[in-house]
Structures are given as C-alpha cells and as structure tokens.
Amino acid sequence: MKNSTLLKMLPFIIPFAFLIPVLVTLSPQWLRLLDMGQLQPLKTVFMGIFLEAVPFLLIGVLVSSLLQWLVPETWIRKIAPAHPVPGVLLASLLGMLFPICECGMIPVVRQLMLKGMPAYMGITFILSGPIINPVVLAATMMAFPSHPEVTAVRMGLAFAVSAIIGLIVYAFVRVHPLKRSLLSFNQQKQNNQTHRHSRTWRGFFVHAGDEFLDMSKYLIIGALLTACIQTFIPRDELLSLSNGTVGSYAFMMGFAYILSLCSTSDAFVATAFSHTFTLGPLAAFLVLGPMLDFKGTLMLLSTFRTKFVAILGLLIVSLVLVGSIAAEWLLGR
C-alpha cells in the first residue's frame, strides 16, 4: 500500500509549524494578530462548513468502498442502458435511491465509472443526485411551505440541466474524463486479486481510508478559502452587486458558489433572500450550488481532467441561468 497523503504532506507542514513560534518570538505583534476579532468568525465558519460536509463525505467513501468490494464490473455494464435517453433518465433519478450530498457524490461516481458506468451517466448522477433526492426535497418544502413553486422549479430545473448535460457529454465527449485511466484501474485490480486480504474487512477500510484522505484535503482547502471569503468580504458589498435583473441572477449564483453550502441546508439560507429576490434568482441559487460550488470544484478537479471540469462548469452556469430566467418568466411572482 502506498504512503498516505498525510505523510506526503508532512514535509511541507512541519516547517510552517516551526515558523509560527519563531515569528511570534521575533515580533510580538504576530501574537496580537492571532487574537484579531475576525479570526473567531473565520474559525466558526470554517468548522461549520467542514463539519457539515464531513459526514456526507464519509458516507460517500464508505459507499464507494462497498461498490469496490461487492459490485462486479459486469453488473454495472448490464444495468447501463444502451440508449442514452434511458441512461440519462436512470442516472437523473438515482438520487432517489442514493440520497448522498454533493460532498460524498464524487467518490461514489468515480468508483462507478471505474467499474464501467458510462461517463454521461456518471456526470448526470453527480449533478442531479445532490438535489433530486428525498432529503433535499423535504428540506426545500419545509423551507418554503407557502411557496411550493420554489420546490417544483428546483427539482424540475435540476432534472432538466443534468439531463441536457448528460446528453451533451454522450454526444461530444470521446475521451474518458477521469484523470485515472480505466487501464490503470484494471491493472491494479488484477494485482490486488493476488493478495489474499484484498476482499477482507481490512481491505474495505483501507480503501475507504485512502478515498477519505484523497478527497478530504480538497474539502479542507475549499472550506478554508470559502470561510475567508465569507468572513472578510462584507455581505452588504455583495448585495450591492445585485442591482438590476441580470445582476440578481449573477449575485445569487456567485453567492451559491462562494458559500459552498450542503444541499440539505441551502434552502433555509435561501429563505433569508425570499423577500429580496424573486423566483428566478432563488432557483438559480438552489440549483447551481449543489451542482457547482467552490469546494466541489476542487473535488471535481481531483477526479476529472481540468479541461473537462472547465467545460462542465461553463455548461452548468449557462443552463442554470437560462433555466432560471425561463422559470421566472413562466411562474414568477
């Protein structure tokens, strides 16, 4: 088994650990800097984002390990429809069976794609699963009890955007988008089959631990940068960017990207803007966030090719914007 990511990072972390007391000793104002009033909100926001996401990431890596351990590649290939339209429909509704937050979705889908799930179905599942599931449905209905149209637009727009992007991936993506090739995965699997512990409980938890370390470092970096943005940029200044019709959509979509909220709780944050913004911008906030936020972008970049992630992000933003404007025009209050 190769060394863990944490061990690889230690040579870079240790010098900084020794540098802090040296700076504090040489310059006492560094000590006062550590007591700045803004550091406490920063720590609070960071811990809130991280602790909110970790349980779902843990669930995701455990499900990923179960798929690695129990599900054969032939079974994945058999259930994948030959035609793209049924495949997209199936992938869009898988979230109803696997209600996993976006933080835990990527390791699950990566494992499914390595076992033979077509790329277009995997991408559709990543985009739709965090929204089209019973937990998020119930949370959105509870957050907007007097406005059922918000829940309907959120679910419908998420389904439409994920299905369209899935069909686009099927039609135009010819190179497998994963950074790790299927050939290297199959070669590692053949090597592991010669090891008598490969299908034991120890092997299960080793795989889960490797997956957790691999994904959690991107979650930590994303949560820290997101916390810095939320702490040091006043919300009033962000609200000032929402002047005008197009500005309200841009603001709510950018706000969803920066906040990086879990899809099970973002609806309750959106209620704070229900008296300021209409249906369209609220729908843009509720759909874009689970599909594409800051910490999720880093996790996508850890799994998929950079060019693919850039194109995927552009498609998500464009389709969510067009769809939310259409929803405002058809059902706006």
From TrEMBL:
Record localization: Cell membrane
User: What does the record list as coiled-coil region(s)?
Assistant: none
Q: Mark the transmembrane ranges.
A: 12-33, 45-67, 87-108, 120-144, 156-173, 215-233, 239-260, 267-288, 308-331
- Membrane topology of the entry: Multi-pass membrane protein
Q: Which GO terms describe its cellular component?
A: plasma membrane
**UniProt-listed InterPro entries:** DUF318, UPF0718
* One of the Pfam families matching this protein, by short name: ArsP_1
- Keywords of the record: Cell membrane, Membrane, Transmembrane, Transmembrane helix
The family note in this entry says: Belongs to the UPF0718 family.
Q: What is this protein called?
A: Permease
Organism source for this protein?
Answer: Paenibacillus polymyxa (Bacillus polymyxa)
Q: What is the lineage of its organism?
A: Bacteria, Bacillati, Bacillota, Bacilli, Bacillales
